[in-house]
Design a protein that fits this description.
With 157 residues, this protein is α/β, with parallel strands linked by helices. It has five helices and five strands; from the N terminus they run βαβαβαβαβα. The chain has one domain: 3-Layer(aba) Sandwich (Alpha/beta knot), CATH 3.40.1280.10. Helices cover 42% and strands 21% of the residues. A five-stranded parallel beta sheet has the order 2-1-4-3-5. Pfam families: SPOUT_MTase (PF02590).
Length: 157
């Protein structure tokens, strides 16, 4: 199984980017992982929130295949602890799917089309985090999930 993370806009903070790169490298020992950045939309001043969500949604959906399982990282999504998340990953790996895609939306969330296409929603916390921090937190949790599945000591540090 492949795992792909799609996010809107680049990571501006070099320290965050270095940490993201570190966890991406670590993940490579467990699974094929791809992190795809969709550039921020240009000229958004003239777009309503709904129009911006639709345009971002079109870009998100253009990066997926019909066979992909699409999971939205959404504040209203199902929350789980790290062990439950590792079991969630294992369940998907056992299902024989080719690619599991997670998506971090833009500043206003997801369009109705993206919600309709999705196969589920996952929430990281009841707290609000910046979109750039969510990238790091999620990639770290992916790494943690695989170390849990392999009974490696990382989770217990």
């Amino acid at each position: 199984m492949n795992i792909k993370l799609i996010a809107i806009g680049k990571t501006d903070n070099k320290n965050l980017q270095a940490l993201i790169d570190d966890y991406k490298k670590r993940l490579g020992h467990y699974i094929r992982f791809e992190f795809e950045i969709i550039p921020d939309l240009k000229k958004v001043k003239h777009l309503s929130e709904a129009q911006q969500k639709v345009k971002e949604g079109e870009l998100i959906l253009s990066k997926t295949e019909k066979s992909d399982i699409l999971i939205l990282l959404d504040e209203n999504g199902k929350q789980m602890d790290s062990v439950a998340f590792s079991n969630y990953l294992q369940k998907h790996m056992n299902s024989g799917i080719k690619t599991l895609v997670f998506v971090i939306g833009g500043p206003y969330g997801f369009s109705d089309e993206v919600y309709s296409r999705s196969n589920g929603k996952l929430g990281l916390s009841k707290m609000t985090f910046s979109h750039q921090m969510v990238r790091l937190f999620f990639i770290e949790q992916l790494y943690r999930g695989f170390t849990i599945l392999r009974n490696e000591p990382y989770h217990h540090r």
